[in-house]
Design brief:
507 residues, alpha/beta, Rossmann fold, 2 domains, 3-stranded antiparallel sheet, 39% helix, P-loop_NTPase
Length: 507
């Protein structure tokens, strides 16, 4: 069944229709400067398609919450929920086919990115039985998939960009159709924008944006000047769901309206203040916080107190410079660091804790063990953590063969290197291939589906080859190294060894 929804009128006065089924398969990119009518266009699209398809709106400014009264959308205020809560909410909304608006108003940029990523991940990781068609609209998409790093942390940017990439690159097979709107194409990550096959380009003034818009629409560079002349609500359309040739159209009216309307000119009050200076510059009222008790400075932690007491007790004369360590002392110190790291990873939830939290605990334990001067920095700790999760000691990792494996792992994202290393360790030792649960723990997730996708991704990079035998057991071979794991059950429990523990081969 073909569903054509009316978006407005073409420049010739004909009805401008959008093929909804084609849109679900090919995605949509909307671009235009502030005030060009992007939000109005999205609202028209959502209203016209609401009876036909489930919708999810990522709303950074709270403009689309008014859809709830007219069309029954569930409004989710992100600031009232944790990231984990929003991830579950996204999954449940998909399962029960409830259209929802994720209202991110009131949050700073970093928390907007984290919560939007969690909600998108919940919808993306829903079980296959619930992959119903769904329209996912992201307003101001450059906030969630920025082309360059901004003021937010690298972790938040990585989470948000990964969720947006999944939506636009891999969402189609899961029934997710991304509709993204941005003020400038130059601000939007290219791998996100490149996956759209339908385009609606509104008014823009910068030469670089006009040139990119003209290239996307197949127009000549000299025709790019036309984007400056577009009025509010006018767009140039191209794509299999819209038109096979660039087509000018004007978006029609909407039934609902945003809470924040466009500013209008208002006359100044006729009666001027008699004494503006006295009113405006009057002394401010007393602060209500004055009666509150002053917050005390946080007390130093126990380690700081011990270090301070030690510095007072010892002789203030400078200590002589310590002699260089011998090879035996260096090896002994390295072994102690390895033991501390293995003890941390032996804790049940260590695989699912953030690396910053693990590093803090590592630092504290090193100080307790008297290794304050030997604490590695965060970069070195990441490398040690990757090796430790694969059960490698520092001495083993220095072997030439493992140096080659480490070099190959460095071509993967940081969070995937540990997965590659545990597979390499199992292959080198002839152990059964790690199960999905062990791979998921090495990546820091509880999702077995994500573990299987990780193996597929690493295989696509040309680093491994996965094979299954007639009993459903998996064997992984490392390309060029000729290392291969023994056949292993993908559904085996999480029994990833942290040291040189022998594994029995699968029956």
């Amino acid at each position: 069944m073909t569903v054509a929804i009316e978006m407005g009128q073409t420049n010739s006065g004909a009805t401008a229709a959008l093929d909804l089924e084609e849109l679900l398969a090919t995605r949509l990119l909307v671009q235009g400067n502030s005030g060009s009518g992007k939000s109005h266009l999205l609202r028209r699209l959502l209203e016209q398609s609401a009876p036909w398809v489930q919708q999810a709106i990522i709303d950074p400014e709270g403009d689309f919450v008014t859809l709830a009264e007219r069309f029954g959308h569930l409004v989710i205020n992100a600031e009232d929920h944790t990231e984990r809560g929003l991830q579950v909410a996204g999954e449940r909304a998909r399962i029960h086919r409830v259209s929802a608006v994720l209202n991110l108003e009131g949050l700073d940029a970093e928390n907007q990115m984290r919560r939007a990523a969690a909600y998108l991940d919940g919808m993306f990781n829903t079980a296959r039985d619930h992959w119903y068609p769904m329209l996912v609209v992201v307003d101001e998409a450059q906030l969630f998939a920025p082309a360059v790093a901004g003021e937010v942390s690298d972790e938040a940017r990585k989470l948000s960009l990964g969720a947006m990439t999944n939506l636009m690159c891999r969402g189609r097979k899961r029934g997710l159709a991304g509709v993204i709107a941005t003020q400038r194409l130059a601000k939007l990550a290219k791998n996100v924008a490149a996956e759209a096959s339908n385009f609606l380009m509104g008014r823009t003034f910068l030469d670089i944006d006009m040139a990119r818009a003209a290239d996307l629409l197949g127009m000549e560079r000299r025709q790019a000047e036309a984007f400056r002349d577009l009025e509010r609500g006018q767009f140039m359309a191209l794509g299999p769901a819209l038109s096979r040739r660039p087509l000018g159209l004007r978006i029609g009216p909407t039934e609902t309206h945003p809470r924040n309307s466009t500013p209008r000119l208002m006359p100044l009050p006729e009666a001027a203040l008699e004494d503006a200076r006295a009113v405006i510059l009057a002394a401010p009222p007393p602060e209500t916080t004055a009666t509150r008790p002053q917050r005390r400075a946080p007390a130093p932690d126990l380690l700081s107190q011990l270090m301070a007491a030690k510095s007072v007790a010892i002789d203030p004369t400078p200590e002589p410079e310590a002699p260089p360590l011998s090879d035996e002392q260096i090896a002994e110190r390295r072994d102690r660091l390895d033991r501390i790291l293995r003890a941390i990873l032996a804790e049940p939830d260590a695989g699912f804790r953030a690396i910053g939290v693990l590093y803090q605990e590592f630092v504290v334990r090193c100080r307790i063990e008297g290794l304050a001067t030997a604490i590695p920095d965060m970069t070195e700790f990441r490398r040690m953590l990757t090796h430790a999760r694969a059960g490698l000691t520092t001495e083993m990792a220095a072997d030439d063969a493992w140096q080659d494996v480490t070099l190959r792992a460095s071509t993967l994202p940081d969070d995937m290197q540990g997965v590659f290393m545990i597979i390499a360790r199992a292959a080198k030792e002839g152990w059964p291939c790690p199960g999905d649960a062990a791979i998921a723990r090495a990546y820091g997730t509880h999702s077995l589906r994500r573990a299987r996708r990780l193996l597929t991704y690493i295989e696509e990079q040309g680093l491994i080859v996965c094979q299954f035998d007639g009993a459903g057991r998996r064997t992984v071979t490392l390309v060029e190294l000729a290392w291969a794991t023994a056949p292993g059950d993908p559904n085996a429990p999480d029994d990833l060894p942290l040291e040189d523990e022998p594994r029995a081969a699968s029956a």
